[in-house]
Automatic annotation (TrEMBL):
Domain named Choline/carnitine acyltransferase: residues: 32-607
Gene source species: Trypanosoma cruzi marinkellei
Gene3D superfamilies per UniProt: Chloramphenicol acetyltransferase-like domain, Choline/Carnitine o-acyltransferase, domain 2
GO BP annotation list: fatty acid beta-oxidation
Record flagged with keyword Magnesium: no
UniProt cross-references to Pfam families, sorted A to Z: Carn_acyltransf (PF00755)
Name of the protein: Carnitine/choline acetyltransferase, putative
Similarity comment: Belongs to the carnitine/choline acetyltransferase family.
Record flagged with keyword Transferase: yes
InterPro entries in alphabetical order: Carn_acyl_trans (IPR000542), CAT-like_dom_sf (IPR023213), Cho/carn_acyl_trans (IPR039551), Cho/carn_acyl_trans_2 (IPR042231)
GO cellular component: mitochondrion
Amino acid sequence: EKKQQINKQKDTQMKRVLVKDLSANVLKLPRLPIPSIQQTAERYRASILPLKPADTVKAHLVKLDTFLAGSAVTLQNALVEANKAAEAEGGYPYSYIEPIWDNLYLSNRAPLPVNTSPAILIKKVKNAGETQPSVAASIVYGIAKWVQNVLKEGVEVRDANMDLSPMLRQFGASLLPGEKVDEFLITPFEKLRHVIVLHDGHLYAVRVFDDQQVPLEQAVIQKCFEYILSITPDTDNTTPVSVLTAGNREVWAGAYAELVRTPENAETLKKVHEGIVVVCLDSKKWEDDDGLKNGAMLHGNKEESENRWYDKHQVIVSADGQVAFNFEHSGSDAMQWARWVDDVLQSIESKAAATTTAAAVDATQVPSLVEPLRVTFGKTFAGHIRSARTEVLDLISNTALGQLHLPFGKKQLKQLGVSPDAFVQMCFHVAFHKCRNKLAPTYEAATTSRFFHGRTETIRSATQEMLMLAEAVNKETKESATPSESDRAAQLALIKAASDRHSTIAKAASKGEGIDRHLTALNCLAVERNDNAALNFFNDYTYKSCCEWGLSTSNVSYPWVERFTFGPTTPNGYGLGYVVDENEVRIMLSAFTSSPSTNVEDMNAAIGVSATRLYTVLSGSKL
């Protein structure tokens, strides 16, 4: 298999996939496999053992065995046959889980910020300038050049085993709010002309391509942003439609339906949908204020909550030129976002200085490139905006954020013979166990992009090996205690076992051999067929509680990522985004303040203590 992959990479080296071929499987990637029912059942059994008392597990597994002896094979066969039929037709859905997964995102009625849309703060970009307009123009020009290159030459194939079809869903993409389910709109690459800009809640469309789809000069784009900053009223927009995108989706859908009854509003909102991305020019300087940065990237804070449009990817630029991205998540995942951001940042950092400066641009041409977008409505409609704003401000107030830096990274951990990702997961589990004397059901995202239209699978990292390690480490009651040689030897063995087990289940998940997508599909079939025997298992409290992620975690590690964050996926859980750099690990924490079960400060401290203890055991010396 490895030889085939190497040969495949050699064959496709330096090749590109043209835009017209992105929706086709030109890389001949396999279809996401459906695991056997026996394999999933076996792995499910193993996954719940560390999470529940033995008597609870025993009673629950009786229901699993009843399901397996009953309709499980029938449901599995139906799933396999439907998948074969879809494959034979050659169209959507391209995997057994795709329609279910799409519907989970599009039918979710909860607000997008915190709950769904993740955010990345990037490091300072070389050659991007220093001011807000110059930095924003550098990013937007880089995106425009990326679109132009893709239209002309296609997307470069860096890895022949990575699906590139989601690249069609990055720019000019937008959610269209619906009462029960949203729609995902895609503007063809060849029709992309403008970006949407928000400043103090005021909307603008800014041309970045000419009619031949050649990008305007970066200096011209910068001049447009400077112009927007100069013409925006001094006071914030008191009734910004943008805030509706941050609230309940059903409310936004009803408000949207009201707005588009007016043809002018329908045209304005169509322009927003067709915008390449949304550029948020914030009014506050972030400087070195970590709390301000963390809130700005995830939900906008109270000061900038109206300066976001969550139906689309957003480039957020602070008043002092710092940059974050907030991503619309229904159409793609971190692997795809990182691909185009990486390309854009590389193009900015490698380019020569621009021959034309913004000061040299003919200012008279700028107003024709900047179109203020106005949405009109009556007094009663403003009530929707006020309600959405209240909901968003409540969400912001209810979201606690924290961060933690560990003074070692990939280099040191690999030298000590442990998987860096597994080590961070160990820190999380030992910390949670320290706080709650148990492990939490844990989700870690694994990409399945090696398959055509692959998205993600769950790594259930709360294993029996993790539990044994957490129990052993937390037996030492004094935080300053240094383990004895015998304890250290025992804990070293537990660390190795936990690391090896984690690597095994992570590899299985990336190969499409996890359990959660498979179980979700079987559950949906059981609901459709009103299969009581199956539902007796799927509706059991133990099953449901083991799928409520007390720790929702994700590793997004690229050289340009400073921080990565998202909200908890359950009311009583934590969101843990992390970046493993060469010599440092950076962790972002989130939780809801309304939860009696979570406390960001306590968890933050526990992760720090656990990381120090584990590193001491590994290295044999204190940090």
